[in-house]
């Protein structure tokens, strides 16, 4: 009895029942069996992923689909598995599709036996989109972190503009892709601020610092060595956004600091406390008319100080109607009030403001002291952060950030759904509380590897609120923040994949059992008439003749038998 030649009636190279074949064909991940480095079986998902037809893939070397660096890694891991060494079954490499595009793929490989010989059983997943999401997330966090640190520097009491610029230029290389070879320079109002390693280089990008729409300086970030080409020379498009944002922020800081320093020089009796404030301060009488206002308040609204003294509160108040404003003025006392509203500027635009008010009697007249803070940027930042949170909450994978003490500092909506906890509950928990008990011991070694390499991919098991456990594939990486090192993890429930793996294993065993139970002689040959399998009855009759020509062994002929396909 002979099984049909591979590549003819069954091009997938797999004999089995319809359920087994359907299970593989409908899997979302690519599935293949490799033997001697070439494809022996592939499913439709892998063909679609690679861009080749299944017939083209069968017999093709697996390395034909990989970049040179990935070929080397894959061969090394395969040889290590053959040698019995412990090798992580899951790893990421880069593949080349038929159209020449390079994609990130994740390989889950294990040794198996196929048609009586050692083979590699692999599951392939296209992770290009996920890698891009991880990259974008990290770049966004770097960008926000850099801008936050610059803002924090600018907010230090008593710090000068020169000190802000010098500390800012030291921070800049950390926000770029290759900080170890990055340098930076700021020029503003004729002054230069540089990192210690700065020198002129051909690999640089820059952005103008503008104050009141006029160029006042420039931010320059360069690489001391050549780096791979990207969106803008060796620089990422995100780095263009970052340097533009830094320049814009420095322009705002410069504008504000210059105004503050100019105001600080104007020492007058009544403006020692008022005009040095970075907030707008206005004093109203009980009729809502401006009694006195500082320079900042007038500038917030786009008026000159002289124009500001002629205004009533309803000339700029945008939210509350006139009668309600008058009632608020009448009711405010020394205890004061604190609220947010919007002010209308002279040009008709509006700004978000935070106001603290106090009422007091001065020389028999009730006056209302108002401190107005422009929170437009803060509101915009809050909206941007809210949008980013919504984007992360829209992800189907579990995304979490925790600190070195395993305390969660961020979880997305998918995490809440997966574990059965509310966001408030999860934010009070530690990572170890959602890891299944049997996986706590490997967690320590995984963490050590993460600290050493900065990125790991592991399989683990997580536990829901109800105590049930589910398998996950975890991609973890370290990220730097102003508060120290954090750990970003993206976890995916792989219950379905595990079920597929178990089904594959069961069907493989079932197929082998069927073959072993055959009492008649059974052999399998390839398309070149080489014997590639013999069952026990055939071996008893002819001996172990694997690799020899079937017509010589069984017919004693020197050529193919007549009529043999």
Mean pLDDT: 85
- Sheet/helix structural class: alpha+beta
Please outline the major beta sheet.
5 strands, antiparallel
Range of helix content: 25-40%
Give an overview in words.
This protein has 565 residues and is an alpha+beta fold. The chain has five domains: 1-126, PAS domain (Beta-Lactamase, 2-Layer Sandwich); 130-264, GAF domain (Beta-Lactamase, 2-Layer Sandwich); 280-378, Beta-Lactamase; 394-497, PAS domain (Beta-Lactamase), CATH 3.30.450.20; 518-565, no CATH class. Helices cover 35% and strands 28% of the residues. The chain has 17 helices and 21 strands. The chain has helices at 18-25, 44-50, 54-57, 68-82, 128-154, 161-171, 237-264, 295-301, 305-308, 322-331, 376-393, 413-419, 423-426, 440-453, 495-516, 536-542, 550-555; strands at 30-35, 38-42, 90-96, 102-114, 117-126, 182-188, 191-194, 203-211, 214-223, 280-285, 290-293, 337-344, 350-362, 365-374, 398-402, 408-411, 455-463, 469-481, 484-493, 523-525, 531-534. The protein has a five-stranded antiparallel beta sheet, with helices on both faces. Strands 11-10-14-13-12 form a five-stranded antiparallel beta sheet. A five-stranded antiparallel beta sheet has the order 16-15-19-18-17, sandwiched between helices. A hairpin with a 2-residue loop joins strand 8 and strand 9 (214-223). Helix 5 packs antiparallel against helix 6 (161-171) and helix 5 (128-154) runs parallel beside helix 7 (237-264). The longest helix is centred in the middle third of the chain and has 28 residues, at 237-264. The two termini are 15 Å apart.
């Amino acid at each position: 009895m002979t099984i049909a030649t591979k590549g003819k009636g069954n091009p997938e190279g797999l004999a089995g029942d319809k359920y087994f074949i359907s299970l593989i064909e409908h899997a979302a991940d690519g599935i293949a069996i490799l033997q001697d480095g070439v494809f022996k079986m592939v499913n439709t998902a892998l063909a679609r992923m690679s861009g080749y037809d299944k017939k083209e893939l069968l017999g093709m070397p697996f390395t034909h689909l990989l970049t040179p660096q990935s070929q080397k890694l894959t061969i090394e891991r395969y040889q290590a598995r053959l040698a019995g060494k412990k090798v992580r079954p899951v790893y990421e490499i880069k593949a080349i599709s038929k159209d020449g595009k390079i994609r990130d793929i994740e390989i889950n490989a294990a040794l198996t036996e196929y048609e009586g010989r050692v083979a590699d059983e692999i599951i392939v997943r296209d992770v290009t989109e996920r890698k891009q999401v991880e990259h974008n997330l990290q770049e966004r966090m770097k960008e926000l972190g850099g801008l936050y640190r610059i803002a924090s520097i600018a907010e230090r009491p008593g710090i000068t503009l020169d000190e802000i610029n010098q500390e800012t230029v030291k921070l800049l290389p950390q926000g770029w892709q290759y900080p170890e070879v990055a340098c930076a320079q700021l020029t503003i109002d004729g002054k230069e601020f540089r990192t210690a390693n700065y020198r002129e280089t051909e690999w640089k990008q820059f952005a103008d610092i503008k104050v009141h729409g006029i160029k006042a300086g420039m931010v320059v970030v360069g690489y001391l060595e050549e780096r791979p080409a990207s969106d803008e020379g060796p620089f990422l498009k995100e780095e263009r956004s970052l340097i533009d944002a830094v320049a814009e922020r420095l322009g705002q800081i410069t504008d504000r600091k210059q105004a503050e320093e100019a105001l600080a020089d104007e020492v007058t009796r009544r403006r020692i406390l008022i005009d040095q404030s970075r907030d707008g301060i206005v004093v109203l009488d009980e009729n809502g008319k401006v009694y006195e206002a500082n320079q900042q308040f007038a500038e917030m609204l786009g008026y000159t100080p002289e124009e500001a003294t002629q205004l009533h509160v309803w000339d700029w108040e945008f939210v509350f109607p006139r009668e309600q404003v008058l009632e608020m003025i009448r009711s405010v006392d020394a205890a004061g009030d604190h609220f947010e509203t919007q002010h209308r500027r002279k040009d008709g635009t509006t700004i978000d403001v935070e106001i603290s008010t106090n009422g007091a009697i001065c020389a028999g007249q009730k006056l209302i002291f108002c401190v107005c803070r422009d929170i437009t940027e803060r509101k915009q930042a809050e909206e941007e952060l809210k949008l980013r949170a919504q984007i992360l909450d829209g992800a189907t994978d579990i995304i979490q950030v925790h600190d070195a003490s395993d305390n969660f500092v961020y979880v997305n909506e998918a995490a809440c759904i997966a574990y059965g906890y509310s966001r408030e509950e999860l934010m009070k928990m530690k990572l170890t509380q959602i890891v299944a008990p049997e996986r706590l011991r490997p967690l320590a070694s995984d963490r050590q590897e993460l600290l050493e390499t900065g990125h790991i991919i592991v399989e683990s098991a997580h536990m829901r609120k109800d105590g049930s456990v589910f398998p996950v594939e975890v991609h973890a990486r370290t990220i730097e923040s102003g508060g120290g090192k954090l750990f970003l993890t993206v976890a995916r429930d792989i219950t379905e994949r595990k079920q597929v793996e178990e089904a594959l294993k069961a069907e493989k065993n079932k197929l082998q059992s069927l073959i072993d139970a055959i009492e008649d002689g059974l052999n399998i040959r390839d398309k070149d008439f080489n014997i590639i399998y013999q069952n026990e009855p055939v071996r008893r009759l002819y001996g172990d003749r694997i690799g020899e020509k079937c017509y010589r062994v069984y017919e004693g002929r020197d050529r193919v038998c007549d009529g043999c396909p």
